[in-house]
Amino acid sequence: MFLYSGSSELNNHSIHPDWQLTLDHASLTIIIPIVEDSVNTTKHLIIKDSEEEVFFVKEVTNSVRNLNTSSLPDIASLDSVVNEFTSTVNNVWEKNSKIINVTKQSKSWWNNNCRRDLENYRSTKSLEDWKTFY
To answer: What integer pLDDT is reported at residue 39 of this predicted model?
Structure first.
């Protein structure tokens, strides 16, 4: 049995000489703690090719254009401009993103086109629509 020596949880094994029977070696057991199967977390997300993405890009682009970078005589002035930009991007992100639950079933490739094609297949039950969705 190979165990991780740096872990007190995984380095506790039991030797069972009474389980030996006709074998010339003793059985070993270990209890391995297993975390909950579903660890949910949330994150902010803007779906690719969505209206929210268009608005986000447009607002961030406008904020870059409106930054006053004509005079940055010292590091404090640069910090101020960078902080203003950061604040604007954070506000625009919060405004346009939505909170989603990330689970083990989450699919990073799923988008509005997938959703639309699946709904189309479900309404028609056509083999061609299934192929389009698939």
So the answer is: 60
Within this chain, do residues 58 and 84 fall inside the same structural domain, yes or no? yes
Rg (CA), the chain: 28
**Do 112 and 96 reside in the same domain of the chain?**
no
User: What's the rounded Cα separation, in Å, for the pair 102 and 110?
Assistant: 13
Beta strands in the chain (DSSP E): 13-16, 27-30, 41-45, 98-102
CA 129 to each of CA 5, 29, 134: distance values in angstroms, whole numbers, following the listed order: 55, 53, 8
Query: Are the C-beta atoms of 112 and 50 separated by less than 8 Å?
Result: yes
Percent of residues, the chain, with pLDDT higher than 70: 90
